[in-house]
Amino acid sequence: MRSSEQNGQRERPKDPWADSPWLKPDETPFIRIENVSKMFGDFRAVDDVSLSIYRGELFSILGGSGCGKTTLLRMLAGFELPSEGRILIDGKDVTRVPAYERPVNMMFQSYALFPHMTVEGNIAYGLKRDAMSRSAIRERVNEMLQLVQLTEFRTRKPNQLSGGQRQRVALARALAKRPKVLLLDEPLAALDKKLREQTQFELANIQDKLGVTFVVVTHDQEEAMTLSSRIAVMKNGRFVQVGTPHEVYENPADTYTADFVGNINLFSGMVTAAQDGQVTVDLTDFPGGVTLATHQTVRPGTEVSVALRPEKIFVTRDRPDDPKLMTAAGIIFDQGYFGKLSVFRVQIDSQKIVQVSAQNRIRFSKRAWDWDEHVFLSWDPQSMLVLAS
For the chain, which domains are there? Predict the structure, then answer.
Protein backbone atom coordinates (compact mmCIF):
# COMPACT_ATOMS: atom_id res chain seq x y z
CA MET A 1 0.00 0.00 0.00
CA ARG A 2 2.11 2.84 -1.34
CA SER A 3 1.28 5.59 -3.80
CA SER A 4 2.61 9.03 -4.62
CA GLU A 5 2.04 11.87 -7.05
CA GLN A 6 4.54 13.89 -9.02
CA ASN A 7 3.68 16.70 -11.44
CA GLY A 8 0.00 15.92 -10.98
CA GLN A 9 0.40 12.31 -12.14
CA ARG A 10 -0.05 9.33 -9.88
CA GLU A 11 2.84 6.89 -9.83
CA ARG A 12 2.39 3.16 -9.68
CA PRO A 13 2.28 2.09 -5.99
CA LYS A 14 5.41 0.30 -4.82
CA ASP A 15 5.19 -3.11 -3.22
CA PRO A 16 6.45 -2.63 0.37
CA TRP A 17 7.50 -6.30 0.54
CA ALA A 18 9.22 -6.50 -2.85
CA ASP A 19 12.74 -6.51 -1.37
CA SER A 20 11.88 -8.59 1.73
CA PRO A 21 15.25 -8.03 3.46
CA TRP A 22 14.15 -10.32 6.31
CA LEU A 23 14.36 -13.23 3.84
CA LYS A 24 17.97 -12.47 2.91
CA PRO A 25 20.43 -14.21 5.26
CA ASP A 26 23.22 -11.72 4.49
CA GLU A 27 21.07 -8.63 5.23
CA THR A 28 22.05 -6.82 8.45
CA PRO A 29 19.14 -5.78 10.69
CA PHE A 30 18.89 -2.04 11.35
CA ILE A 31 17.33 -2.57 14.80
CA ARG A 32 18.17 -5.62 16.91
CA ILE A 33 16.36 -6.42 20.13
CA GLU A 34 18.22 -9.23 21.86
CA ASN A 35 16.65 -11.18 24.75
CA VAL A 36 15.11 -8.04 26.25
CA SER A 37 13.03 -8.24 29.42
CA LYS A 38 11.51 -5.52 31.60
CA MET A 39 10.49 -6.04 35.21
CA PHE A 40 8.27 -3.77 37.30
CA GLY A 41 8.71 -5.27 40.75
CA ASP A 42 7.65 -8.90 40.41
CA PHE A 43 5.73 -8.25 37.17
CA ARG A 44 7.48 -9.14 33.90
CA ALA A 45 6.01 -6.67 31.38
CA VAL A 46 8.34 -7.75 28.55
CA ASP A 47 9.60 -11.31 28.68
CA ASP A 48 12.84 -12.25 26.87
CA VAL A 49 11.92 -10.92 23.41
CA SER A 50 14.21 -10.85 20.40
CA LEU A 51 13.42 -9.08 17.13
CA SER A 52 15.16 -7.85 13.98
CA ILE A 53 13.82 -4.83 12.06
CA TYR A 54 15.38 -3.77 8.76
CA ARG A 55 16.20 -0.34 7.38
CA GLY A 56 13.21 1.39 5.80
CA GLU A 57 10.59 -0.99 7.23
CA LEU A 58 7.24 0.15 8.50
CA PHE A 59 7.03 -2.38 11.29
CA SER A 60 4.04 -2.77 13.62
CA ILE A 61 3.87 -4.30 17.08
CA LEU A 62 0.29 -5.46 17.55
CA GLY A 63 -1.36 -6.57 20.76
CA GLY A 64 -4.08 -5.99 23.30
CA SER A 65 -3.92 -3.70 26.31
CA GLY A 66 -1.26 -4.68 28.82
CA CYS A 67 0.63 -7.03 26.49
CA GLY A 68 3.90 -5.05 26.83
CA LYS A 69 4.03 -3.35 23.43
CA THR A 70 4.24 0.24 24.70
CA THR A 71 6.85 -0.73 27.32
CA LEU A 72 8.97 -2.20 24.51
CA LEU A 73 8.54 0.98 22.46
CA ARG A 74 9.62 3.09 25.43
CA MET A 75 12.75 0.95 25.81
CA LEU A 76 13.54 1.58 22.14
CA ALA A 77 13.10 5.30 22.78
CA GLY A 78 15.26 5.26 25.91
CA PHE A 79 12.49 6.26 28.31
CA GLU A 80 12.76 2.86 30.05
CA LEU A 81 15.87 0.73 30.57
CA PRO A 82 15.73 -3.04 30.01
CA SER A 83 16.09 -5.26 33.06
CA GLU A 84 17.85 -7.79 30.82
CA GLY A 85 19.11 -7.95 27.24
CA ARG A 86 20.29 -5.26 24.87
CA ILE A 87 19.10 -3.03 22.00
CA LEU A 88 21.17 -2.10 18.95
CA ILE A 89 20.34 0.57 16.36
CA ASP A 90 22.38 0.84 13.18
CA GLY A 91 25.07 -1.38 14.67
CA LYS A 92 25.44 0.62 17.91
CA ASP A 93 24.49 -0.70 21.34
CA VAL A 94 22.07 1.91 22.74
CA THR A 95 20.81 -0.13 25.69
CA ARG A 96 22.14 2.38 28.26
CA VAL A 97 22.26 5.43 25.97
CA PRO A 98 19.91 8.22 27.20
CA ALA A 99 16.91 9.10 25.04
CA TYR A 100 18.29 12.47 23.91
CA GLU A 101 21.41 10.82 22.48
CA ARG A 102 19.62 8.12 20.47
CA PRO A 103 18.98 8.50 16.70
CA VAL A 104 15.25 8.09 17.30
CA ASN A 105 12.23 10.29 17.80
CA MET A 106 8.82 9.40 19.18
CA MET A 107 5.32 10.49 18.20
CA PHE A 108 3.01 10.14 21.19
CA GLN A 109 -0.60 8.99 21.15
CA SER A 110 -1.77 12.35 22.53
CA TYR A 111 0.43 14.21 19.96
CA ALA A 112 1.71 16.41 22.86
CA LEU A 113 1.65 19.63 20.81
CA PHE A 114 2.43 22.92 22.54
CA PRO A 115 -0.93 24.76 22.62
CA HIS A 116 0.64 28.24 22.78
CA MET A 117 2.80 27.68 19.67
CA THR A 118 1.82 27.89 16.01
CA VAL A 119 2.15 24.94 13.66
CA GLU A 120 5.57 26.12 12.47
CA GLY A 121 6.60 26.86 16.05
CA ASN A 122 5.80 23.30 17.09
CA ILE A 123 7.74 21.86 14.17
CA ALA A 124 10.72 24.14 14.79
CA TYR A 125 10.92 23.52 18.56
CA GLY A 126 13.33 20.57 18.49
CA LEU A 127 15.49 22.22 15.84
CA LYS A 128 15.91 25.32 17.98
CA ARG A 129 16.93 23.14 20.92
CA ASP A 130 19.62 21.69 18.66
CA ALA A 131 20.87 25.23 17.95
CA MET A 132 20.36 25.06 14.19
CA SER A 133 20.72 28.33 12.31
CA ARG A 134 17.58 30.33 11.59
CA SER A 135 17.91 29.83 7.84
CA ALA A 136 18.33 26.06 8.26
CA ILE A 137 15.33 25.90 10.60
CA ARG A 138 13.21 27.88 8.16
CA GLU A 139 14.20 25.60 5.29
CA ARG A 140 13.53 22.41 7.30
CA VAL A 141 10.15 23.68 8.59
CA ASN A 142 9.06 24.57 5.05
CA GLU A 143 10.11 21.11 3.89
CA MET A 144 8.08 19.43 6.63
CA LEU A 145 5.02 21.62 6.04
CA GLN A 146 5.09 20.72 2.38
CA LEU A 147 5.55 17.05 3.20
CA VAL A 148 2.45 16.91 5.42
CA GLN A 149 0.50 19.38 3.23
CA LEU A 150 0.00 22.01 5.94
CA THR A 151 1.81 25.01 4.44
CA GLU A 152 -1.30 27.20 4.50
CA PHE A 153 -1.89 26.37 8.20
CA ARG A 154 1.58 27.34 9.42
CA THR A 155 0.40 30.23 11.60
CA ARG A 156 -2.51 28.41 13.24
CA LYS A 157 -2.51 27.12 16.81
CA PRO A 158 -3.33 23.46 17.58
CA ASN A 159 -6.83 24.32 18.82
CA GLN A 160 -7.58 25.75 15.36
CA LEU A 161 -6.83 22.46 13.63
CA SER A 162 -8.78 19.26 13.04
CA GLY A 163 -7.68 15.98 14.62
CA GLY A 164 -6.09 14.82 11.38
CA GLN A 165 -4.20 18.10 10.98
CA ARG A 166 -2.87 17.91 14.55
CA GLN A 167 -1.72 14.38 13.84
CA ARG A 168 0.22 15.62 10.80
CA VAL A 169 1.81 18.44 12.81
CA ALA A 170 3.01 15.92 15.39
CA LEU A 171 4.38 13.75 12.59
CA ALA A 172 6.17 16.70 10.98
CA ARG A 173 7.70 17.72 14.33
CA ALA A 174 8.92 14.16 14.93
CA LEU A 175 10.45 13.94 11.45
CA ALA A 176 11.99 17.43 11.41
CA LYS A 177 15.10 16.25 13.25
CA ARG A 178 15.58 13.54 10.64
CA PRO A 179 15.78 10.59 13.02
CA LYS A 180 16.99 7.23 11.81
CA VAL A 181 13.99 5.64 13.53
CA LEU A 182 10.53 7.06 14.22
CA LEU A 183 8.52 5.41 16.99
CA LEU A 184 4.75 5.87 16.88
CA ASP A 185 2.53 4.99 19.85
CA GLU A 186 -1.08 4.39 18.68
CA PRO A 187 -0.66 7.22 16.12
CA LEU A 188 -4.21 7.13 14.75
CA ALA A 189 -6.19 6.23 17.87
CA ALA A 190 -7.61 9.74 18.33
CA LEU A 191 -9.09 9.92 14.81
CA ASP A 192 -12.55 8.88 13.67
CA LYS A 193 -12.83 5.80 11.45
CA LYS A 194 -12.99 7.50 8.05
CA LEU A 195 -10.16 9.92 8.84
CA ARG A 196 -8.12 7.07 10.32
CA GLU A 197 -8.42 5.09 7.08
CA GLN A 198 -7.38 8.11 5.01
CA THR A 199 -4.47 8.93 7.30
CA GLN A 200 -3.17 5.36 7.14
CA PHE A 201 -2.40 5.89 3.45
CA GLU A 202 -0.90 9.33 4.07
CA LEU A 203 1.36 7.97 6.82
CA ALA A 204 2.54 5.08 4.64
CA ASN A 205 3.20 7.41 1.71
CA ILE A 206 5.29 9.76 3.86
CA GLN A 207 7.28 6.86 5.27
CA ASP A 208 7.92 5.53 1.78
CA LYS A 209 9.04 8.93 0.51
CA LEU A 210 11.49 9.55 3.37
CA GLY A 211 12.73 5.99 3.82
CA VAL A 212 12.83 6.41 7.60
CA THR A 213 12.35 3.22 9.62
CA PHE A 214 8.97 3.39 11.37
CA VAL A 215 8.05 1.24 14.37
CA VAL A 216 4.34 1.49 15.18
CA VAL A 217 2.61 0.21 18.30
CA THR A 218 -1.12 -0.39 17.90
CA HIS A 219 -4.00 -2.50 19.17
CA ASP A 220 -5.91 -1.97 15.89
CA GLN A 221 -5.54 -5.06 13.68
CA GLU A 222 -6.83 -3.30 10.55
CA GLU A 223 -4.36 -0.45 11.05
CA ALA A 224 -1.44 -2.86 11.41
CA MET A 225 -2.53 -4.86 8.37
CA THR A 226 -2.87 -1.75 6.20
CA LEU A 227 0.33 0.02 7.23
CA SER A 228 2.94 -2.61 7.79
CA SER A 229 5.66 -4.40 5.91
CA ARG A 230 5.66 -6.86 8.83
CA ILE A 231 3.77 -7.34 12.10
CA ALA A 232 4.82 -8.76 15.46
CA VAL A 233 1.83 -10.05 17.42
CA MET A 234 2.45 -9.71 21.16
CA LYS A 235 0.82 -11.51 24.09
CA ASN A 236 1.80 -11.43 27.77
CA GLY A 237 5.14 -9.78 27.08
CA ARG A 238 6.19 -12.19 24.31
CA PHE A 239 5.93 -12.34 20.52
CA VAL A 240 3.68 -15.16 19.36
CA GLN A 241 4.20 -14.52 15.64
CA VAL A 242 6.22 -12.23 13.37
CA GLY A 243 5.39 -12.03 9.67
CA THR A 244 3.91 -10.06 6.81
CA PRO A 245 0.24 -9.08 7.12
CA HIS A 246 -0.64 -11.85 4.66
CA GLU A 247 1.29 -14.46 6.65
CA VAL A 248 -0.21 -13.41 9.98
CA TYR A 249 -3.77 -13.36 8.63
CA GLU A 250 -3.75 -16.40 6.34
CA ASN A 251 -1.33 -18.57 8.34
CA PRO A 252 -1.67 -17.66 12.02
CA ALA A 253 0.77 -19.50 14.27
CA ASP A 254 -1.78 -20.40 16.94
CA THR A 255 -5.37 -19.97 18.05
CA TYR A 256 -4.59 -16.70 19.85
CA THR A 257 -3.25 -15.02 16.71
CA ALA A 258 -6.04 -16.46 14.57
CA ASP A 259 -8.66 -15.10 16.96
CA PHE A 260 -6.96 -11.73 17.59
CA VAL A 261 -6.24 -10.79 13.98
CA GLY A 262 -9.62 -10.53 12.27
CA ASN A 263 -12.65 -12.74 12.88
CA ILE A 264 -12.40 -16.50 12.93
CA ASN A 265 -14.46 -19.65 13.36
CA LEU A 266 -12.69 -22.34 15.38
CA PHE A 267 -13.75 -25.99 15.24
CA SER A 268 -12.32 -28.66 17.53
CA GLY A 269 -11.21 -32.03 16.27
CA MET A 270 -8.91 -35.02 16.60
CA VAL A 271 -6.14 -35.96 14.17
CA THR A 272 -6.75 -39.50 12.91
CA ALA A 273 -3.95 -39.68 10.31
CA ALA A 274 -0.87 -37.63 9.38
CA GLN A 275 1.47 -38.06 6.43
CA ASP A 276 3.54 -35.91 4.02
CA GLY A 277 2.31 -32.51 5.16
CA GLN A 278 -1.31 -33.57 5.34
CA VAL A 279 -3.54 -34.53 8.25
CA THR A 280 -6.96 -36.05 8.47
CA VAL A 281 -9.07 -34.48 11.19
CA ASP A 282 -12.29 -35.83 12.65
CA LEU A 283 -14.22 -32.62 13.43
CA THR A 284 -16.70 -32.55 16.29
CA ASP A 285 -19.22 -30.46 14.36
CA PHE A 286 -19.17 -32.35 11.04
CA PRO A 287 -19.61 -36.05 10.21
CA GLY A 288 -16.65 -37.79 8.62
CA GLY A 289 -13.03 -36.71 8.47
CA VAL A 290 -11.48 -33.95 6.37
CA THR A 291 -7.95 -34.05 4.94
CA LEU A 292 -6.06 -30.74 5.18
CA ALA A 293 -2.59 -29.51 4.30
CA THR A 294 -0.52 -28.25 7.23
CA HIS A 295 2.99 -27.02 8.01
CA GLN A 296 2.64 -28.07 11.62
CA THR A 297 3.89 -31.37 12.97
CA VAL A 298 0.96 -33.16 14.58
CA ARG A 299 0.55 -36.83 15.36
CA PRO A 300 -2.56 -39.01 15.26
CA GLY A 301 -4.47 -38.68 18.50
CA THR A 302 -3.60 -34.97 18.85
CA GLU A 303 -6.43 -32.58 19.65
CA VAL A 304 -6.38 -29.60 17.29
CA SER A 305 -8.42 -26.55 16.37
CA VAL A 306 -9.37 -25.95 12.75
CA ALA A 307 -9.77 -22.29 11.78
CA LEU A 308 -12.01 -20.89 9.06
CA ARG A 309 -12.34 -17.19 8.22
CA PRO A 310 -15.94 -15.89 7.84
CA GLU A 311 -15.27 -14.47 4.36
CA LYS A 312 -14.25 -17.91 3.05
CA ILE A 313 -17.81 -19.23 3.60
CA PHE A 314 -20.72 -18.94 1.16
CA VAL A 315 -24.34 -18.89 2.29
CA THR A 316 -27.07 -20.14 -0.07
CA ARG A 317 -30.66 -21.31 0.09
CA ASP A 318 -29.95 -24.49 -1.88
CA ARG A 319 -27.36 -27.13 -1.13
CA PRO A 320 -24.36 -26.69 -3.49
CA ASP A 321 -23.80 -29.47 -6.03
CA ASP A 322 -19.99 -29.30 -6.01
CA PRO A 323 -18.75 -32.44 -4.19
CA LYS A 324 -15.38 -30.79 -3.46
CA LEU A 325 -17.00 -28.30 -1.10
CA MET A 326 -17.71 -28.92 2.57
CA THR A 327 -21.28 -28.05 3.48
CA ALA A 328 -23.36 -27.55 6.60
CA ALA A 329 -27.07 -26.92 7.03
CA GLY A 330 -28.39 -24.41 9.54
CA ILE A 331 -30.62 -21.46 10.29
CA ILE A 332 -29.85 -17.77 10.39
CA PHE A 333 -29.56 -17.11 14.11
CA ASP A 334 -28.60 -13.43 13.79
CA GLN A 335 -27.49 -10.98 11.11
CA GLY A 336 -26.14 -7.48 10.71
CA TYR A 337 -26.04 -5.11 7.75
CA PHE A 338 -22.88 -2.98 7.49
CA GLY A 339 -23.34 -1.38 4.10
CA LYS A 340 -20.54 -2.91 2.06
CA LEU A 341 -21.01 -6.31 3.71
CA SER A 342 -23.48 -8.34 5.73
CA VAL A 343 -22.53 -10.54 8.67
CA PHE A 344 -24.52 -13.66 9.52
CA ARG A 345 -24.41 -15.90 12.57
CA VAL A 346 -25.70 -19.28 11.46
CA GLN A 347 -26.58 -22.06 13.88
CA ILE A 348 -25.63 -25.32 12.19
CA ASP A 349 -27.07 -28.75 12.98
CA SER A 350 -24.49 -29.39 15.72
CA GLN A 351 -25.85 -26.22 17.44
CA LYS A 352 -22.52 -24.40 16.93
CA ILE A 353 -22.76 -20.77 15.80
CA VAL A 354 -20.75 -20.05 12.63
CA GLN A 355 -20.03 -16.49 11.54
CA VAL A 356 -20.20 -15.68 7.83
CA SER A 357 -19.42 -12.39 6.10
CA ALA A 358 -20.71 -11.68 2.60
CA GLN A 359 -19.94 -8.77 0.30
CA ASN A 360 -23.07 -6.85 -0.75
CA ARG A 361 -22.26 -6.83 -4.47
CA ILE A 362 -25.73 -5.85 -5.66
CA ARG A 363 -28.15 -3.22 -4.40
CA PHE A 364 -31.33 -4.50 -2.79
CA SER A 365 -34.24 -2.55 -1.35
CA LYS A 366 -35.16 -4.93 1.45
CA ARG A 367 -33.46 -7.45 3.68
CA ALA A 368 -32.16 -10.35 1.60
CA TRP A 369 -32.42 -12.97 4.36
CA ASP A 370 -34.88 -13.62 7.16
CA TRP A 371 -34.15 -14.64 10.72
CA ASP A 372 -34.59 -18.41 11.24
CA GLU A 373 -34.38 -19.00 7.49
CA HIS A 374 -32.91 -22.39 6.57
CA VAL A 375 -29.67 -22.01 4.66
CA PHE A 376 -26.60 -23.97 3.58
CA LEU A 377 -23.02 -22.98 4.26
CA SER A 378 -20.25 -24.12 1.93
CA TRP A 379 -16.51 -23.63 1.66
CA ASP A 380 -13.39 -25.08 0.09
CA PRO A 381 -11.83 -27.33 2.74
CA GLN A 382 -8.38 -25.98 1.80
CA SER A 383 -9.52 -22.64 3.28
CA MET A 384 -9.39 -24.34 6.67
CA LEU A 385 -6.24 -24.16 8.75
CA VAL A 386 -5.02 -26.66 11.37
CA LEU A 387 -3.82 -25.08 14.62
CA ALA A 388 -2.50 -26.82 17.68
CA SER A 389 -4.95 -26.26 20.53
Answer: 5-103+179-256 (3.40.50.300), 263-388 (2.40.50.140)
